[in-house]
Structure formats: C-alpha cells, structure tokens
Write a structure and sequence with these properties.
With 907 residues, the protein is of the alpha/beta class. Helices cover 34% and strands 17% of the residues. It has five domains: 73 residues, no CATH class; 286 residues, Aconitase, domain 3; 239 residues, Aconitase, domain 3, CATH 3.30.499.10; 174 residues, Aconitase, domain 4, CATH 3.20.19.10; 39 residues, no CATH class. It starts with 14 loop residues before the first strand and ends with a helix.
C-alpha cells in the first residue's frame, strides 16, 4: 500500500537500488548527491546527514525546494545567517496526557471542517502515529503484592471516559494506533518495540528504505537518539500538523560535538553519568542545538547507557542528544528480538548512506567541540529543585542543610533559625521525622528503568540489604514502576523481585507514575506530620525532573538518583545523612551496615544481566501488546467519523480554538493598553505554567469540578483533564510553587488585578480583564517554559487572554508552542530584563509596530506607561523564527493554518 506521507519524486536523480537479505529496495543515495557536487557528506554531522536524506527524498519544488537540499548539504559549523530547513518525520509518537488533547483537536478540526462545508474525513493522519497510554497510572496502593492490580483497577475507574474517547479515535482515524495501558512507558516501548532504525515503505514506485525518524508529544522523545534515530519532542499542536502531512520548518541547527573518553570507575552508574553531563551542558548552553556524541567512551558504552543520556536532552537543553548508528546499535536490535533480516537491512542501509559510525570513522565538523573524561564521574544525585543541580553523593547531606537556610532566589527554602530543627512524630512506632525525611522513594521513569544495569544493581543491593536484615523506614512511600513488562520478567528471572518486594518496592504499575507527578497521596500520618511541622520533606526518585511541586505537592526537596541509590535512601530514611561515611542502619547483630557493604560490584551486575535477559523475552512481551489489556479490549466503540461531544462531560469537551474560524486569514491586531497578568523570575517551567498533578479542591479548577458534580476524590489530575479546556484554563499558572511578583508574599496562582490592586487568583483576574476588554501580557526571566513539551502551557496562556509573553530567553518547545497558539513570544534584548528596566508590572503596555508587515526575527518597541503618566520604551526581539511560524501566527495558530489549507485544497 502506498503511504501518502512518502513522495516518489526524485528531483536530483539519486534514487537507486540496494540489495538486502529480504530482497532489493530503493534508497535515495546521499553519496550520489556528493557526486553531483552537492556537499561533502563525510564532513557533515551524522544528524545533519539524516535531515539531508529526508529533504532530498521529499524535494518536490514546493514543500521542499532544491535550495533546501543544497542548504543542508552546505551545513556550516560557523553559519553566517539563519537558514530555514524542512524536516518530514517518518512517524509520530504520543503519550496520553498530550495525546488526548491532540486527538481532541483532530476531532474538533473534523467538526469545524463540517461546519465550514468541507469533508471531515480529510482530517486524517497521513503518517503513522502511535499513542502509548502511560501517564494515567497513579501510585495509590504501594508496599503490597496487590498494588499492581489495585492501581490498574483505579486507573480504569478514573479514566474510562478518556479511554473510550481514545478507542473511538483509534477506529475513526487512519494510521493511528493506541498501545493500551499497562504495556509500558512510551519512550521505553519506542526503544524496545516501535523503533525500526530503517523503515521500508511503498511510495508508488516500489519499496523504499528510509531512516526511521520521528517527533513525539513528550520532551523525552529524545531517548530514541540513543538508537541512532533522529527525533525530538514537540508540542501536541505541532505534532498534529506533522500527522496531517505538514513538514516541520526549523532553523538550521548548530551541532555540538561531545567527545567521551575513558571509562567510568567501579560503582559509577549511567545515572551518575547523565546527571554530570546534564550539569555540564546546561552550563555550556545548548538550547536549540543538536549534541552529537562520539569517541572511545561511546564505543565502549552500552546502548541502554546511551539511551539514558539521550533521554535527558531536554534537561541539558538540547534539541537532541544523538548517538550515530554503530555496531552496538545492531547488537541492541538483535538482543531485543528484531529479526536477522531487519538487522541486515539496517546495517546495509546505514553503511550505504554514510550513516554508520565506526571507531575509525573521521570526525565530522562541529559548531563546537567538547571533551569529557568518563573516569571523572563520581556517584551523585541532582536536586533539590532542578535536574542540572548535580551534587556529589559525598556532599548531599551538607548541600541539603545549606539549602534549608538559602533564600528562595538561590533555590533554597529560606527557613528561619527557629524552623531549622523541626521534629514531628508520625506515629508511636518510629522516631519523629524532621527536615530531609525521605517520604517518597520511587524507582520510576524510562530514563532508568530502560537500563538493565541499574535496575539489576538496585535488585542486587536490595537482596544484600535484606540478607543483612535492613528494612525501609516506615515513613517512606516506596514504589517500582517499570517502563516495560520486560523489566519485571528479567528481575524475576534474576531472583531479585522478591528482595525488592521485601523492602516495599513491589511493582505498582507500568507507566510514568511518580516521574510525572502521579506519586499519589502520602499516607495520612506522614502527610499530617509534614504539614504540621512545615517540613522540607524529600523524595528520591530515578526520574528525570525534580521541579518544585511536580513530584508531590507536600514534598519540597526532590532528588534524582540511580535506582540503587533510591533503595539506599529508602533504607536510610533521610537525605540528611552522608551515605559514604555514615551507616544505613544496623544488621541483626547490631553491627553498622554501610552503603559500601551492600553496593554490587560491576562483575556481579554484568553476570546477573547476562543470565536473565534473552531476545525471546522482548518478542513474547510485545507480540500481544495491543491485545494484552482485557479491560481495554472490553471498551465498546462506535465507528462514527465525527465525535459526539457530550456537554455534561468533565473530561472531553470540544475546545474553543476553532469555534470562530473563517476561511479568510485575519489581520494582525495591535496590542495596546495591555496589563501584565504575571511577572515571573527565571527557570519558570511548563509545570509551573500548567501543572500535571493533583487538583486542589479550593482552586479554580477544583471549584469548577465540584460545581459540576465531581467529588474531590474523583478529581483525577490536571494531566488527565487535558481534554477539557474549562478545567485546564482554570489550572493555568496554578502550580502551588509558582511565585508571581505581582502578588508579593504569596505562593501559588495569585496576582493583583490592576489598577485597583486587589489580589485574586490568576484565572479570576484574567476573566475580569476579559470583561473589561483589556489585553494581557506576561513578563518573565530566563529559561521561560523549560521542562515538558506541554502544549497546554501555551493553550492555557492563550485562553487566559494573554496576547504576548516578554521573557529573557525561552526553552525551545514552549516558544514554538506559543507561536502555534497565536501568542507572540518576545525576548528582551541581550543584557536586559524586566528587573534591569525597572518595570513594576503595574504599567500599561503598548507594542509599537505590530502589524501585518511583521517579519521573523525582527524587533518591536514596547512602551510601558506608569500610573503617573511617565513612560519608558525598550526594544524586544520577535521570537517568531521562521516564515512558516509567521504563517501560523498570522492564522491565529497551527490548527487554524492547517484547517484553512485543507479547505483550500478541497476546492
């Protein structure tokens, strides 16, 4: 069957035939471009070569021009001017928190298409899209053997309506597949099952082999870069455009070469390596850039270790953390049950296309070259508030104590002298707890559960701890949420599941869970102690993010750590302890037991991994993945092409984004007399803007749900409610840890309504401004929108009436999402901030020069007028980066752009 997402055009005459074990296939040969004098392939970074192949294959003179191909072939380490390039991903992956609103948008586009007289069936994915349901699992039951069954039952009770909607989408849309709950985490399932490295498709002239490339609606899509696959996270609305056949238009990326040398010391894990690299690259500044790894350290590195490093590319700011295809890539494909014929295809294609990296391969040109000796890595954690804040294991206790006194602006907790020594009893069975008490210890996240070496190390440490008579402290909520069922099988085979269970680390589900804030409630007695003592309680998790308010609303200090260290801290019960010098506890004879006594050796880990893993495990677990969940299979579904919106639903509603769309593109309207809705500091995350976790009953979203008959026990989470704009707009800027400088002395979603100065919720103020016909802006610091690829952070901003954001700098995905929603991202010129300009946030703001002649990367001037009539003007950079983004903005957003294009094509 011909794939409409593939083109049979061959503008450069480079299509040829390649023999494989399964027969001949066509390829678009990169060396043939070089033979025509178009670039020198061997000097290009491997990631750029993949983009070049995509452009050459899709070059039709319209969506992709010959000039686009020549620009990519001429990639320069030192570009003189920004150049826009196209990228056609081969597929899309989604998770359910971002996937449900994406399918809601597609359903809304069908409804709008019908209203405008078009054929709703034209709204259909043109390239394959896989949605993995992994974000809805919550850790309610833990520490017991029945936790898995109970949590799965609760997941279906809470999310049946969402799952019914996804079942409808699976039937209604072509090229759309849903992986049911309980299979695993999207990125680990992608790595172990969905990824092919090379894809064979029919394009009208026969089978053609193409690089496996993708975008995903989750920022950690980059995990697949460890398998030599180009891909990264995008917002849901951008993914929808890609699914509907639109290319991604982006600026030619800079590519930073990162040479890894040496080898890690015994006792150092892949987690320690990635936390160290995250700190280095965040300091280096690689936002919006590709990072490409090479060197002897890479040659000796396992693919799961590479995937761990690639996974955290969003944390170090890069668009990708790319490892080119090599012998280890082929070995991983074999070890995970891919067929011999397919591995042969991957090897032949990669070598034919100069995409295969060997130890003797010449080093490509890079924008900048960094070198790092893996031997310098030491055991570490990251925290207590950001993933780039690495702290050596030897310094964790001291660093934590320092953070208690440190001011909020220095990522501390600003405790007074009187509050430093708080101690509160939990119950009569154990000593009181104080600051640093570990109340959550979670082995979680695809970052680490995809890596057998650290998972087996955790099991071996648990086994040794149990043998010595150690136990987890009673106030610690323990959980194990593997990223795939393969993990449970190999831990069982290695004889390690029992020991983990004895320490409370029973498998509670297969999904993201604690990593994305679905840690579930703390036990009542622990929650009461933390609240009464205003304790800075801690979570230790093997995840990839530890932003404030993300893991659990009651847990202020959050540390990222390897799975074996998670187990160790659960035993210790506190982060206020030097695990390198102080004992974890005492054995049955009363002798002190130190971490070094139970830490597994590299040989022990290697032997255990080798003895418990086979390719057949992967084949068997994934063979029946689509039919594996009986509750999912039992959901009844209709074959209607249009979704029947239920006005009573509190989960799924038709969003208002397309309600008033017309076939004509509107003018760009000026922004005058605007008020600041929020004035924020640095490193405001998408979690701050649009939280994914629990909904407080006294919040605007909570009150809305109660008014619509939903009991607080049935609130579910913000992430689960993303199919309902009425809930989500009320949850925008509602994170309990956000600090708005317009409401000094408050924490949470508060602001001052101006000019009267009355303090109210951000949502209530926004609605009041809407009634007053006052446009809104947001003022922010550096790294605005860091974190998850959360399109609701942009959607909610838009629905609050915010027309523009002025920030010191942006994280890549959120800036793109703002444009995709028709919100104007503006950037202070270098060296300026709202602080340096002495803005109070109480001014009236006029954006001067905003009109139909707006250009990408241009400048505007802003006039800020104070209450006394005095005014100041300052320049801002327009962060609409490409002509395609300008088209999105002019149309009011991506959805409007694509809908108008589909209508035009149908006429």
């Amino acid at each position: 069957m011909t794939n409409p997402g593939e083109s049979a055009v061959d503008k450069f005459g480079i299509r040829g035939t390649m023999e494989t074990a399964a027969g001949p296939v066509s390829v678009y040969r990169l060396p043939a471009l070089e033979a025509q004098g178009i670039g020198k392939i061997a000097r290009l970074p491997y990631s750029i070569r993949v983009l070049l192949e995509s452009a050459a294959r899709h070059c039709d003179g319209y969506a992709v021009s010959p000039e686009d191909v020549r620009n990519l072939a001429a990639w320069s380490a030192q570009p003189s001017t920004p150049v826009e390039i196209p990228f056609h991903p081969a597929r899309v992956v989604l998770q359910d928190f971002t996937g449900v609103p994406a399918v809601v948008d597609l359903a809304a586009m069908r409804s709008a298409m019908q209203r405008l007289g078009g054929d709703p069936r034209r709204v259909n994915p043109l390239i394959p899209a896989d949605l993995v349901i992994d974000h809805s699992l919550q850790v309610d039951r833990f520490g017991h053997r029945d936790a898995l069954r109970r949590n799965i039952d609760l997941e279906f009770e809470r999310n049946r309506e969402r799952y019914e909607f996804l079942r409808w989408g699976q039937e209604a849309f072509d090229n759309f597949r849903v992986i049911p709950p309980g299979v695993g985490i999207v990125h680990q399932v992608n790595l172990e099952m969905l990824a092919q490295c090379v894809i064979c498709r029919e394009d009208g002239r026969g089978p053609v082999a193409v690089p496996d490339t993708l975008v995903g609606t989750d920022s950690h899509t980059t995990m697949i870069n460890g398998l030599g696959i180009v891909g990264w996270g995008v917002g849901g609305i951008e993914a929808e455009a890609v699914m509907l056949g639109q290319p991604i238009r982006m600026l030619m990326p800079e590519v930073v070469g990162f040479e890894l040398t040496g080898a890690v010391a015994p006792g150092v894990t892949a987690t320690d390596v990635v936390l160290t690299i995250t700190q280095i690259l965040r300091r280096e500044g690689v936002v919006g850039k590709f990072v490409e790894f090479f060197g002897e350290g890479v040659d000796a590195m396992s693919l799961p270790d590479r995937a761990t490093i690639a996974n955290m590319a969003p944390e170090y700011g890069a668009t990708m953390g790319f490892f080119p295809t090599d012998a280890e890539t082929l070995g991983y494909l074999r070890r995970t049950g891919r067929s011999a014929a397919h591995v042969d295809l991957v090897e032949r294609f990669a070598k034919e296309q100069l995409l295969f990296r060997a130890a003797q391969s010449p080093t490509p040109e890079f924008t900048k070259l960094l070198t790092f000796d893996l031997a310098s890595v030491e055991p570490c954690l990251a925290g207590p508030k950001r993933p780039q804040d690495r702290v050596a294991l030897t310094a964790v206790a001291h660093s934590f104590r320092e953070s208690l006194r440190a001011p909020i602006q220095a990522r501390g907790f600003a405790l007074s002298d009187e509050g430093l020594h708080a101690s509160v009893p939990v119950d009569d069975s154990e000593p009181p707890i104080g600051h640093g008490a570990v109340v959550i210890a979670a082995i979680t996240s695809c970052t680490n559960t995809s890596n057998p070496s650290v998972m087996v190390a955790a099991g071996l440490l648990a086994k040794k701890a149990v043998e010595r008579g150690l136990r987890v402290k009673a106030h610690v909520k323990t959980s194990l949420t593997p990223g795939s069922r393969v993990v449970t099988e190999y831990l069982d085979r290695a004889g390690l599941s029992h020991a983990l269970g004895q320490l409370g680390f029973h498998t509670v589900g297969f999904g993201c869970a604690t990593c994305i804030g679905n840690s579930g409630p703390l036990p009542d007695a622990v929650a009461r102690a933390v609240t009464e003592g205003n304790l800075v309680a801690a979570a230790v998790l093997s995840g990839n993010r530890n932003f404030e308010g993300r893991v659990n609303p009651l847990v202020k200090a959050n540390y990222l750590a390897s799975p074996p260290l998670v187990v160790a801290y659960a035993i210790a019960g506190t982060v206020d302890l030097d695990l390198t010098k102080e004992p974890l506890g005492c054995d049955r004879e009363g002798r002190a037991v130190y971490l070094r006594d139970i830490w597994p050796t590299p040989d022990e880990v290697c032997q255990a991994v080798a003895g418990c893993m086979t390719p057949e495990m992967f084949v068997n677990q994934y063979r029946q993945a689509l039919q594996s969940n009986t509750q999912w299979n039992a959901i009844s579904v209709t074959d209607a092409q249009l979704y029947s919106w239920d006005p009573r639903s509190t989960y799924i509603q038709e969003p208002p984004f397309l309600a008033d769309v017309t076939p004509e593109i509107p003018d760009i309207h000026p922004i005058t007399g605007a008020r600041a809705l929020a004035m924020l500091g640095d490193s405001v995350t998408t979690d701050h803007i649009s939280p994914a976790g629990s909904i407080a009953k006294d919040s605007p979203a909570g009150r809305f749900l109660i008014e619509h008959g939903v009991a607080p026990s049935d609130f579910n989470s913000y992430g689960a409610r993303r199919g309902n704009d009425r809930v989500m707009v009320r949850g925008t800027f509602a994170n309990i840890r956000i600090r708005n400088q317009l409401a000094p002395g408050t924490e949470g979603g508060w602001t001052s309504h101006l000019p009267d100065g009355s303090v109210m919720s951000i949502y209530d103020a926004a609605m009041k401004y809407r009634d007053e016909l006052v446009p809104l802006i947001v003022l922010a610091g550096a790294e605005y929108g860091t974190g998850s690829s959360r399109d609701w952070a942009a959607k909610g901003t838009y629905l609050l009436g915010v027309r523009a954001v002025i920030a010191a700098s942006y994280e890549r995905i959120h800036r793109s999402n703002l444009v995709g929603m028709g919100v104007l991202p503006l950037e202070f010129v270098a060296g300026q901030t709202w602080q340096s300009l002495s803005l109070s946030g109480h001014e009236l703001f006029d954006l001067l020069g905003l009109a139909n002649d707006l250009q990408p990367l241009s400048q505007l001037r802003v006039r800020a007028t104070s209450a006394d009539g005095s005014a100041k003007e300052f320049a801002v950079n327009v962060r609409i980066d490409t002509p395609v983004e300008l088209e999105y903005f002019r149309n009011g957003g991506i959805l409007q752009t694509v809908l108008r294009r589909l209508l035009k094509e149908a006429r």
